[in-house]
Every structure is written in C-alpha cells, then in structure tokens.
Amino acid sequence: MALNSINPTHTEVWKKLQKHHLEIKDITMKSLFAEDSNRADSFTIKWNDFYVDYSKNRITKDTRSLLLDLAKECELEDAINKYFSGEIINETEGRAVLHTALRAKESDSVLVDGVNVIPEVYAVKNKIKAFSNSVISGERKGYTGKAFTDIVNIGIGGSDLGPAMVTEALQYYKNHLNVHFVSNVDGDHVHESIKGLNPETTLFIIVSKSFTTQETLSNAQTIRNWFLSDQFSTVQEDVAKHFVAVSTNLPKIEEFGIASENVFPMWDWVGGRFSLWSAVGLSIALAVGYDNFDKLLEGAHQMDVHFKTTPFEENIPVQLSLLSIWYNNFYNAESEVIIPYTQYLSRFAAYLQQGIMESNGKSVDRTGNSVDYQTGTIIWGEPGTNSQHAFFQLIHQGTKIIPADFIGFTNSLHRDKDHHNKLMANFFAQTEALLNGKTALEVQNELEGKMDTEAIKKLLPYKVFEGNKPSTTILIDELTPESLGALIAMYEHQIFVQGVIWNIYSYDQWGVELGKQLATNILKDLTSENIENHDSSTCNLVKYFKKNQK
Ligand code: F6P
Q1: SS3 (DSSP) at 37
Q2: Cα-Cα-Cα-Cα dihedral of 387, 392, 49, 284, to 10°?
Q3: Which residues on neighbouring strands pair with residue 202, listed in sequence order?
Q4: Most buried of the four, 235, 261, 264, 352, by CB within 10 Å?
C-alpha cells in the first residue's frame, strides 16, 4: 500500500503552529534557558552512545508537542510501518524502499512481492565477505600473480559518495589497501587517478545500479582501454581478474565483459543514495575489512530499531526532522549546516547533500499537485574547526537563520587529549556563542580602558553578536564503524520523516534526468558539423567552444 497523501498545511495543527510561531518568534533562547533550569535535560535524548541535545533551538515544550501532533496528523506511524515492511512507497518508480533490509538480522523476514529478501541479502553479504577476505589476505591475485595493493571504485552519485565518505571516515580502521574513487566524467579525473597505478596490482570495481550512467561507463571504458593498452602485457582474459561490477543490470555487465562470478547484484528496492549498505559498499569492506563493514551495518540496524520502536517524543530522527520542518516552514530558513568536529567526516556534508537534496528537492505532492509550501533542505558544511575560520562569520553575524548540527565525539581515536580538548572546547564554545551572542554591554565592558569612549562607540555595533542562533549537538562516544552506521541511518530516517510530512515522494530523482537528456543531444553537436536548435545563448556558447577547442 502506498503512503497516504495529507497536505501538512491543511492539518488542524498547522494553523496552531503558525499562531504559535508568531507568539514565540521574538522570544530568545537565552531567556528560555533562564526561565527553566531543566531546559537542557528536557530537550536531550540519550540513546546508546549518542547524546543528542536539541535544547539550543527556538522551541518551547509547546512547540515540541505541536510538532509531534503534526507528525501524528500526517500519519507518520503508519508511514513508518509501510517503510519497513516493503510497501511500494516509491510510487513514481513502483518500488519498495528497503535499504533497512540490508542491515536486518538474518532471522528477520522482509517481503517484497511476497518473497522474503533477507536470504538474498545474506547471500550477497557472504559473497562480499569471501571476496574482500581473499583480496585483503592476498590470496586473490592479479594477472602476473601479484597480490592487490590498490582498489579503484568507478561510480558516481550514490555509487561513489557513500563508499568514498565511509572509507574516509573509517580511515583509522584501514588496512594496507589503497582505495581510490573515480567519479567525474572529466577525463582529467580518471587520467590523474590511474597515472600512478600499477595494473598488475590494481582491482577495479565498477559500481552502477543501472549500468547505464554515462560518467561511470565512460570511466570504466577508459580504464579498461588503459589496462589492455600495449604498454602492459595484458590480454583480454586478464580483465576477469581485475574488474568486478556491482549492479542490478546483469545483461549490461555481461556486455561489458565482466565474468559472472565477479558480479555483485543489488536490487531495485535499494535507492542509489541509500546503497552503501549493499555491495555498493564493497570498497568499504575491502578498505576496512568485512567485520568492520558488518559493524557499520549493525550500527545502522540499531538506529533502525530505535526509529521504528521508540515513541516519537524520544525518537531522535523524528525530533530532529520536526525541528528542520519548524525552521523551514515557519522561520523560512533557507539552509542548514552540518559541522562534524572530526576530520574523518570531511566528506559527510557532501554525502548528505545527495541523500537529503536528491530525496526531498521536490515540488509536487503525493496527489500530483504543486506544493505551496517549502520542501527540501539545502545542506552544506565542512568539518570544524576549519569551518570556523571560513564561513562561521556568516552564521554568527549574517542576516540568515541557519540551523546547525554540531557532531562531536567524546574520545578521539588517537587518544591525543591535548588536541581533542582543544577541538572540543571549540565545539562547545561555538554552540554557546550561537546561543548567547554578546550584548552591547558586554562589548562595552570588554573595551573599556583599552580605547577612548568615542572609539568604543564607533566599534561597538560591529562587535555585538545577536545570538539566538539555533544549533543541535550530537555528541557520540567515539567514531566507530557502529556509531558511524547509526549516524548515517539517523539522517536517512530524517529524510524519510520529512518526505512523509511534506507529502512528497522522497525516493525518485526525475529532476536529474533532463540535464542528462540534453547533454546527450549537445554531445552530438560537439562532435558533428551542425548544431541543433537551441536558445541563442547555448548556440553561441557551443559555437565558441567548438571554434576555440585545440
Ligand atoms: O544522479 C542520479 C542518479 O541516478 C543517482 O540517484 C545515483 O546515485 C547516480 O545517478 C548513479 O546511478 P547509477 O548507480 O545507476 O550509476
């Protein structure tokens, strides 16, 4: 059964939320903290090794209960049941949405068209395990009998961002294999990536759910040509030893010449941007070993159980997505920032950009009508403390309201307390500064005695921090494969909740198709004499490009 279609703005509670927003929008968080000494506790959820403090947000207990009513009126509970049980909730593509099945227990049963998919999931997991063990141990060898030293993941979008982000995030747990990612159809990317590689010891994983993606197929073709080029003593049969593929499109893989035993299947009920838990994560299993890959899945599974079974009041993904809706739809926030205080998560925001924006960047609701309210969160971010020295100025003193997620860890992996305390002092200080700001009186007191009254008067307005800037703090014990899995799953479920409430289809991505179609037409123009009909700007640009290309 499909998800119900409920326009959130037509619910009873929406009007109440609008009224409530008008009542509280000018109240400062600072005063809310002053009024309620238990505020931090009242707005904190502790779960496993997660400590989620959302008290530094522009909400009261009334806001929370109204937002929870919104979730109820939008029938979130029913939607969650449909999500986990394999209903066709991706209606525009006629598919279930079951990345959660990829991390389910072997004893679980998840039906798609009446068939339990868990045995297939475990068959592929076992294949990933056997394959990654044989490559890591050196038992599996290249065409000259040497063990592999390098792995190249060829994919784009969900077939690249997830594995690339996780491999980077779990660098601490890495083995001797060097893992590279080639994604862009920009030839400079692929040529730079292969120039230092030894084909004798390099394994290539072509990852494409559809196996029709131009970028991935072009890169795979270029790499195969390089591998079979005269500079190496390779022959056609060696391709089977060095190329493996992950896809749902088995005929296309065969056409490419990949041996059937080197194919890792996936399923159409796994969306590309949610696929790192499938064989798309093969590069992760190779980089950190299968056991760590499995722990990543286990962490995500724990979060699935939390999301599925915890009352909404204490449910982390539910509470955080309601906050996001609060800012998007009532405060008209234009974007949200995600700041992990660990260099290991340097690709996290880029990864979430696809997950969040490809999913909820939609303007037609589940009845086929255009929405007349905001959907889709714009996500950006970089690790702290680097981002403090880059864009934090705008968050502190700019004109926009930018809700921020601060993700930090109690323990650093290298156990360097000196560095870690400095890092985390910044982490806590930023959320405190965003909350409290700095008043004119505080600035005045700070400057007195350092300059004359006239100079203070001139400088003062620039040194005042308004404060009252919302942030949510997610403090986790340590960056482990389990906690990373749980963190990623937490955001995945937020995407789902927001899509349900916004009454949109979160699991298709038709919006990326038009550009692909037009690029195919323009490629013909670039490689032939004539130029087809385009607007005058595009025509001029194409002509200029063709004339000046060397
Ligand atoms: O950008 C569109 C998209 O379909 C993504 O959703 C997907 O992750 C990516 O392209 C790659 O697709 P594929 O895995 O089929 O090559």
Answers
A1: coil
A2: -30
A3: 150
A4: 352
